[in-house]
Amino acid sequence: MDTLYDHMPILSRGRHRNPRKGACFMELASYLAGERWSDHPACTHPLLAGLARLVNDHTTDEGRGRLVPLVPSIIGLRGDDLRIDVRLALRAVTTALPVAAADRQLALAVSVLAAEEMLARLDGRPAALEERSRWAFAQAPHAAEAARRFSRASKITEKGFRRYAAPNAVQLSVVGIAQACVPDPDGMLHDLLVAAIAECEALIPRARPGADAATAPRGTVNAGTSGRPA
């Protein structure tokens, strides 16, 4: 029996002129949302959309099909709260830091501190690492120590964080995971996107347009036996 997914454009890397040429993750989202064909549709928060494009492009051809059921769950997740950007950046860098190559870890650790500082500023409290950030730092202690000496996180403006720091952190994280010496980088990227969608859903509590058109199985982040926080 045919399913909705059997009639969708096939996911592949990069941008595509039209559905007959294939689709990236966000182009497929624009298609399902009934928007103009685009890899930057209005239906999704820009940073979440950027993460989805990066995951799409850095997942192997063999693994990319596993991303398709996640597409409907990204539709309608929009909001202006800077906490969305902070949470997405934190989720990405704390996932990547423990597995990334050593030459990437300092930048990732600095990104953790920048995001934690911004979150504390938004919440009106002193900066303090959350459990997941503490866990990530424990996996890369040398990078964490160097980051604390190097970081100028407190000088980042809200505009600068949204425009530069958060997108750069997400890009560095996805590339770091894709190139990491781990058994299943595709699986890690998939789980990162699942977790990022969940972060947005927690901060944007409203109905998602198009959710009835195609119901995506809800994935779970596989923490394995590493003991890492959810």
How are the secondary structure elements laid out?
Elements: H1 25-32, H2 46-58, H3 61-64, H4 71-74, H5 82-96, H6 102-123, H7 131-139, H8 141-150, H9 158-178, H10 185-203
Helix pairs in contact: 2-9, 2-10, 5-6, 5-9, 5-10, 6-8, 6-9
Q: Runs with pLDDT <50, length 5+?
A: 207-226
**Rg from alpha-carbon coordinates:** 17 Å
- SS summary, helix count: 10
| Helix/sheet category | mainly alpha
Describe this entry's structure for a reader:
It is a single chain. Helices cover 54% and strands 0% of the residues. The chain is built from ten helices and no strands. Residues 211-230 are annotated as: Disordered.
Q: Any descriptors?
A:
single chain, 230 residues, mainly alpha, globular
Structure described in brief:
This protein is mainly alpha-helical. Helix 5 (82-96) packs parallel to helix 9.
